[in-house]
Structure formats: structure tokens, C-alpha cells
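Usage

Read records sequentially. Each one opens with the input sequence:
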Amino acid sequence: MIPFRTSAAALFAAVALAAVPATAVAHNGSHPFENCTEAYDNGYSNIPEGDEHYGEHLDRDKDGIGCDQPPSDFVPRDESDDDAGAGAGDGGAKEENDGGTDLAETGGSDTTPYIAAAGGAVVLLGGGLMIAARKRRENR
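and closes with the structure output:
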């Protein structure tokens, strides 16, 4: 077994995985959420039409309220941390935090499973190439 080829295959696999872009993105509050899952994860529900977080794609029943069916484990955003001074709410639309010290909330997106599958395919392909090369050397 030649150590250089094994190291080169491992290096190739590592570079390929490093090239996969990260999908964690902070929601800065100046645009609609991509989907209701993202809204719920950020503590938003019952987003009224006209709100900066509202999008027609969030309002499936077209009643003017987006993301109006939060899951049972939904936790509303704590407005007491907002610099805007909004009072405690009912889990409805929330105002953007204007420059507070809260950390950005990050998470996966709809592309996360595809990126994970691509990374797994690269690892499997690298392993398959290493096995094939080893078998070729044994048959010589």
C-alpha cells in the first residue's frame, strides 16, 4: 500500500467536504421568513399582512395572517429583550430587535439534507476508489 495515494484520497475528500457551503443564515428581520418553520423557530406566529415578516407564501388559507398554526411546542419570542420596548405579546407578530446584543439564530434550511447527502456521496466515492485501487494492486 502506498501511503501517498491514501493520503491524497483523504485530502481530496476533506477538500470536497470543505467546499460545501454552510447553510446557517441569521434572520435579520428585514424580509419575510422563507417558511413557517423558520418563523416558528425564531418565535414568530400569526404574522399579519403588512408586517415586514409577512409573505403570501406563509399564508396558505389567504386570510391575511401568516403562520397561524404554530406547533404544540412553539415558544413565542420574548419581547422584553427588544430595544423597541414592546410589551409582552400573545405570540403574534413581533418587532425587529434594533441593535440588541442577542446572538443571531441560525439553523438549517431546505437544502441541508441535500448537502449532507452530497457529503456522504463524496465520502463513499472516495472509499470506493480506495477499495478499487487496492484490489487492482492485489491482482497485479
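Summary fields computed downstream for this record:
- The chain has a mean pLDDT of 73.
- The first strand starts at residue 47 and ends at 48.
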